Amino acid sequence: MPDTILITGATGTVSSALIDELGDAPGIHRRALVRDGAKVDGLRQRGIEVVTADLDDPRTLGPAFEGVDGVWALASVNPRAPEHNMNIVWAARQAGVRFIVRMSAVGAAHDAPTRNGRLHALSDQELQGSGLQWTILKPHFFMQNLFGAAGSVAGQGAIYLNMGEGRLGMIDVRDIGAAAAQVLKAPHLHGGKTYTLTGPASISFDEAALAIGNAIGKPVNYVGVPSDAAREAMTGFGMPQWVADAIVEYGEAYAGNWGDFTTPTVEQITGRPPRGIADFARDMAGAFKD
Fold first, then answer.
1. pTM listed for this prediction
2. CB contact burial 160-180 (16+ within 10 A = b; e otherwise)
């Protein structure tokens, strides 16, 4: 019998990359947990079993976890994330799951400069004390976060962020998916380990803008903005206040070079180097064009 891997956050960017990387790997049966059953046709067409459940409500989780060997645990950025992760761990223990691979956040710690990092530290600690086999992944800033600037790049040739002149080891989400897939395929090799995942170089947002401009064939500039302006813009587009505040906190931390580092971990896990910003920009150029 193949191992059944339950993938939470299955329609999100990172979990979608993981699903791509797992593909039709022998010995693994993919089961996707989704909250909205109306968004699953694409998953089913790829031969993925889909179950509908709600991490807000642990009473709905039993069928999703039944017969599961391993879990990819991902909760979105929100103030209830520790509750969601708690419900994942509880349901996994009830169902006899063998291992959990959890996506935490870069720099997650009780003294992290961001509320999201501090909440992730709580969930990391809970998983570590759960009695289950665990692995924790802490990915750096996603290159795909730059999609949030696609409109201003296309219309104004500009990326507006409150990141100051900070440098950071941003990572392509596809490399997070590749690392997670390797861990899920061989959890016995990674049990009890915490990995920080980064791209190959620590770069500035000026360099990121240059790479995107080269890929789309027109100048693109990074424009640093004050935190209040960034917060107002995000909430103006309908982003919840708590999430906007959390993102602004990351920007302020990165502006102080809190994220100015890289690790060799992606290549150590996957056997291939992570994608650089030029690779990302070339592959995703269409997202930034008119």
1. 0.96
2. bbbbbebbbbbbbbbbbbbbb
